[in-house]
Structures are given as structure tokens and as C-alpha cells.
Amino acid sequence: MKIEEFKAGVYKTQYQYKSFSPTFINQTFTWEDAKINVLLESAMKVLGELNAFTKIIPDVDIFIQMHIAKEANTSSKIEGTKTEIDEVLLDKEYLEPEKKDDWQEVRNYIEAINFAIKELETLPLCNRLIRQTHEILLQSVRGEKKIPGEFRKSQNWIGGTNLNNAYFIPPHHSEVAELMDDLEKFLNNDEILVPHLVKIAIAHYQFETIHPFLDGNGRVGRLLITLYLVSNKILDKPSLYLSDYIERHKTLYYDKLTFVREKNDLKGWIEFFLEAIIETSKSSITSFKKVLELKNRMEQEILTFGKKAQNAKKLIDTLYKQPLVTVSDIVEELELSKPTINNLVKDFENKGILKEITGHKRNKIYVFDEYLKIYSKN
């Protein structure tokens, strides 16, 4: 199938509305547009550079968890949550009551990502894994009544308040199982000759068009990109997430998906997707460079602690995993006395490594501010 000749699907008349039935995609795709080749080359080059960084940074899994926290927060924000990354890293007890539901949604997403990445060690990227990940995503949150972990058994829609004024109506629920089966085959079909980045671009479009769940489709669809790259060894670690790029180009993102359905413009969507890969990879590389620079600087700073250097090293390592902490958190993690920790925290404050952010005399919260800012615009 030539991308330029691709027919996205047809509208089918249902009861008082029309749903969009997408074309099956489990086939080889080719193209004549040279721009895709150039973007594809650039995207693979910068992904290789990103992958190299995950190999040279010691204990990189610690810093990957911060990437995951940022992705979970940004991806959830696209769906309407209001939580900021510093709040995500706090325990639930420190949040205002009105923020706890949003916090839980983001924490579910972190758990879902980590679960899916772990499962890829023994499972292919399949519908079973997609459903299990979705089930974790919707546990004890607003979508928990929308059959978590199961493909929908009723019609859904995007935009608007009902089927009559919806912006887009995905395929009828009776088609979902067969369409998702086709998508699963496409993701795992090694016999079709399609470069991986083009393949996942098409797969992401197809997933969002099928909209197989009653809730959580956007988050699962974006996570699908990273899972595919890890599953196919394009990335050794889950270090690339497109949600930040999508949030900043949200209107264009939805337009490009719509243009595939309305104008059969699959080429335009693939080009947008590859540009997103390139820019996001460069941004992730910049973050890893800053982390490496900060880590090297902190190792030199620890030498100035003299006899306290060993405990200072332990505290720094804790802060990489949890950049917002209380004294009680540190006592529990380092298994040292509270007076010892209080003195150590005071030293960290004096050196500008930690900053107290509550202004309270009790229940103080400290932030490893320079580190957190690498992952946060705020």
C-alpha cells in the first residue's frame, strides 16, 4: 500500500449517527515522498544518541523514573488533570483534598508505565498487555466504572456532549475486537517491510481512531509509542515520551489525526510524528546532559562534607529518586537518627542543595530544586 494512496476508512450509518470504520493496517506501506526519508533518517540518528546517554549515565534507572513521572503528569494533564510534577512526587497526605483525585490518576499512570515496561521482558506488545495496563490506569479513579481492562461494549465519541454533536465518532463497538486484532498483528508482524518509526506512527493513529476503551485512550495510545520502541530494541530504556510535545502542539496533533480520516492524509501525520520524535529526543538528551553535569558536580560537593561525606552521598542518592522529602522520609530511607539527619539537611540547605518550601515550623518539605527543574518548566 502506497501511503499516498491510503484510504483511511468509511463512515457507517448506525442508529441516528454515523461512526467511522477505519481500514485494516496489517500490510506493508511504501511512499514516494522524500521528506519522510529525510525525517526518518534524522529521527533514528537522534534516537541513537538518546539511547547512548542511557548507557553512559550510572544508575540511569533512577533518572528514568523521573522521566516517567514527568510523562505521567504531562499525559494526564492533556486529559484535564491539574497536578504539577512537584505535587506528583509528594505523598498524598500533603495535598489539598481537591487535588487528591488528580494525584491518584497520575500515580496510576506511573504504576501502569512501570508495569508495562516490566511485562515486556516476557510478553510481546499485545492486546493482553494493553488491557492490563489500562486496568491499572483506571483503578480507583474517575474512570473506574468504565470497564477498566476491557475493550468497550458500547459506542463512545470524542468532543461534544453526545453522539449528535460529537466531533468524531469512532467505530461501532462490534468492530473493536477485530480492529484491535489487526492492530496487534501489525505491531508484531516481522514480515511486512515498514521501518519501525513509520510503523508505530501508523499504529498510534489507528489506536486513537479505534478508541477501544471507554476512557483512558489518549494516555494508553501515547504510552504505546514508548512500549513499541522498547519492545523492538530501538530504545534500551523507556526514555522517550511524546506527551510534552503533543501538549504544546495539541491543536495540530488533533488536526493531523483528523486529516487522515477526512482527507486520507497519512503522509502529513507521519511527518508530524517524526518531527515530534526528533524534537522530543533532542529535549530528552538535553535533560540527560544536565543530569550528568549535576551528578558530577554533586560528587565534587560531597567531598567537602569531610566525615559526613558517606551520609551525604546516601542523601544525594535518595534525592535523585525522591527530590521532595521530609526529615522523616530521610530518616526512614537512610536509617539514621533524627538529630543526625537534621544536621545533614541543614548542611544541604546552607550549601543551596536543598530548599525548604512550606515555610512551616513543623512538617517541613525540602526540595532538591536544581534537579527538579530539569524535569519541570515551573
Describe the model:
- By secondary structure, the chain is mainly alpha-helical.
- The protein has 2 domains: 285 residues, Fic-like fold (Orthogonal Bundle); 80 residues, Orthogonal Bundle (Arc Repressor Mutant, subunit A), CATH 1.10.10.10.
- 58% of the residues lie in helices and 4% in strands.
- The protein contains 15 helices and 5 strands.
- The strands form 2 sheets. It has a 3-stranded antiparallel sheet with strand order 3-5-4. The chain has a two-stranded antiparallel sheet with strand order 1-2.
- Strand 1 and strand 2 form a beta hairpin.
- Helix 7 crosses helix 11 and helix 13 packs across helix 14.
- The longest helix has 37 residues.
Order of helices and strands: EEHHHHHHHHHHHHEHHEEH
From the 3D coordinates, which CATH architecture of the largest domain would you assign?
A: Orthogonal Bundle
* Poorly predicted runs: none
Q: Main β-sheet: number of strands, strand sense, barrel status?
A: 3 strands, antiparallel
Q: What would you call the shape?
A: globular
- The CATH class of the largest domain, by name, is Mainly Alpha
Beta fraction of the residues?
under 5%
Number of separate helices = 15
Number of DSSP E strands: 5
Roughly what percent helix? 55-70%
Mean pLDDT, to the nearest integer, reads 93
Computed Rg: 23 Å
CATH topology of the largest domain: Fic-like fold
Overall structural domain count? 2
Quickly give the structural class.
mainly alpha
- Strand arrangement in the largest pleated sheet: 3-5-4
Distance between the termini: 45 Å
CATH H-level superfamily of the largest domain: Fido-like domain
